[in-house]
Specification:
alpha+beta, about 35% helix, Lambda Exonuclease, Chain A, single chain
């Protein structure tokens, strides 16, 4: 089944932000692999200052020379699981693991949202934590996720996880997948898929309910 979608081209400001973010992700990946990063810092004082700012606040994220016991570090780490006949894959910017805890790190190049609850309830947060609990021996309460907002003034937001959230996400995913299967059956029988308006373009999206009602999860 092919889902057609359309979207506007990014503005010059958005394109610059995407390039900045790709550059930062590449720098962090090379740093974790022990590769030189100076060429990525050269020629852009503002980019260098942003990297140095987060390095000053959280040097352990940039250095593998941490006190014993050292957490294991996995950059651009892929995990996959199956649920309800569907496959899911997530890629963590950085995963830090110790015998009794695991922390997911995600880099963001936009300003920190004023409402922390928005990120705590965001599907990226919920699905990333859920995936790790489903594909490892870590209990939900041993898992957390930290967002780092790295452009301009470096800030972080740490979000804990737990068994209650895990069960709620599990139930919601099963309900949503059942709804998606019914939509697909109707579509194959000639009925149009439900559509919602997506800012700055259009796309077919799945409605994923949360505490505030529903959030849009474009299939992109």
């Amino acid at each position: 089944m092919v889902l057609e979608q359309c979207a506007l081209l990014p503005s010059p400001e958005q394109q610059a932000g995407l390039i900045w973010g790709d550059r930062f992700h590449l720098l962090m990946q090379q740093q974790q692999l022990g590769l030189p990063v100076e060429t990525l810092l050269a020629g852009d004082p503002a980019f260098r200052e942003s990297v140095q700012a987060i390095g000053a606040i959280a040097p352990d994220l940039f250095s593998t020379q941490t006190p014993e016991p050292k957490p294991q570090r996995f950059s651009e780490h892929l995990r996959s699981f199956a649920l309800g006949g569907h496959s899911f894959s997530v890629v963590y910017d950085l995963l830090l693991t110790e015998p009794d805890r695991a922390q997911i790190i995600d880099w963001k190049t936009y300003p920190r949202p004023q409402n922390d609850r928005w990120l705590a309830e965001h599907w990226q947060t919920r699905l990333y934590c859920y995936a790790l609990a489903e594909t490892s021996e870590y209990r939900p309460e041993q898992i957390s996720m930290t967002y780092w907002f790295v452009q301009e003034k470096a800030q972080s937001l740490h979000i804990p996880y737990g068994p209650t959230q895990h069960q709620q996400i599990h139930n919601t995913l099963l309900q949503t997948l059942d709804r998606l299967d019914r939509w697909r059956t109707h579509y194959q029988n000639g009925q149009p898929l439900p559509q919602v308006e997506v800012a700055r373009g259009c796309a077919i999206a799945v409605l994923l309910p949360n505490a505030a009602g529903a959030v849009q999860m474009p299939l992109q």
